[in-house]
């Protein structure tokens, strides 16, 4: 049995989700101690973790212990790798829900998606033979939980950033629709979030591109061709927020070339439900095998800006950076905003922050935003062949990393040069501890893949992955 200390690296849910997902696929018996041990809230499994791991236990016939909300140690011993009968039919989808309505649907999906891609479909009377490795099948999933939850990717981030990236870079196509939003902000209304997914299962994850290096080895500077906004806000501030976002984007050199387009604008119906997502993307070049690159940044407001203004004090504006996007979104920053009758100061502050974060991410270059980077690690590890999802290092990006994790501080040109597909083992990474460029979440995810998948090899400061070629 493999034992992992849940305090290693980022020491939170990312480690748990990645380890459980790969243990289910590989059949590796797993024990995790000190679950989420680095979290100030006290750690332990959250409802979304418990729900997803229990589902994996059911479909793998796993013997388990300690899989419940609040548990700080759990064991997982899978026996087989089967999906539920009939899950390839829209009439009998897999249904996954947590014990609480606002438990993150996206974080549950992160735990089970690898298994849904590669778990075996059982033989049935209607389908007596398993699908061959050259056939593509689809799995239907009804996902119930929070769609706009703090510290987790939102549905909009999945829809506009993660899922398109998985399709462009790995050939994983996910049809999706949101049936009902569910927030963990505002008064409880008994509404359960609902996302419908059809996950098309390729025989293998075949990487479509491994780097964005030009012929001269110089990284291509991101040329942004579109910036789109999604805004859900109370009616009292909606128009002012739209104006503030448009104005701020027009002042930003990295984002001003294309006009800001509003993909979705809706009244949220509650003073505590305010959400903004900005997504910037490049055009891509299919002829030269250069995919579209996407950067997403969003904000989820947890204070009631209407009520706070009525009381004469400003709300705290919370920044969700990134995922989890939003895997994209862990750390939050808060600032008191003076209350004003028209909420103009609140809207200006939100616009400045979300545009500023997005512009900084784009300016750093690479293949996408820092939260997207850690979410694709597991797919790199499972892919057949070599992939690279590198990012330009920002000056302060590594502050969250622990002191014992070394940063090679590579210049962009040197990093890109190492993305060449060579077999020089001198660039091999030490995979015995979290490693590589980017966030501590990305470094930890790489380490977990190396612990659970024997065929995975990382090199060049975590920028190049030779995947296990899972089928």
Automatic annotation (TrEMBL):
Q: Which Pfam families match?
A: RTC
InterPro entries found in the cross-reference section: RNA3'_phos_cyclase_dom, RNA3'_phos_cyclase_dom_sf, RNA3'_term_phos_cyc, RNA3'P_cycl/enolpyr_Trfase_a/b
> What are the GO BP annotations of this UniProt entry?
RNA processing
Q: Where is this region: Disordered?
A: 311-333
Checking SUPFAM superfamilies in the record gives:
EPT/RTPC-like
- State the source organism's domain of life: Eukaryota
Gene3D superfamilies referenced in this protein's UniProt entry, alphabetically: RNA 3'-terminal phosphate cyclase domain (3.65.10.20)
> What cellular component terms from Gene Ontology apply here?
nucleus
One GO molecular-function entry: RNA-3'-phosphate cyclase activity
Domain (RNA 3'-terminal phosphate cyclase): residue spans on this chain:
9-391
> Which spans does this entry mark as compositional bias, Basic residues?
318-330
Record's protein name = Rna 3-terminal phosphate cyclase
What is the protein's species of origin? Answer: Ophiostoma piceae (strain UAMH 11346)
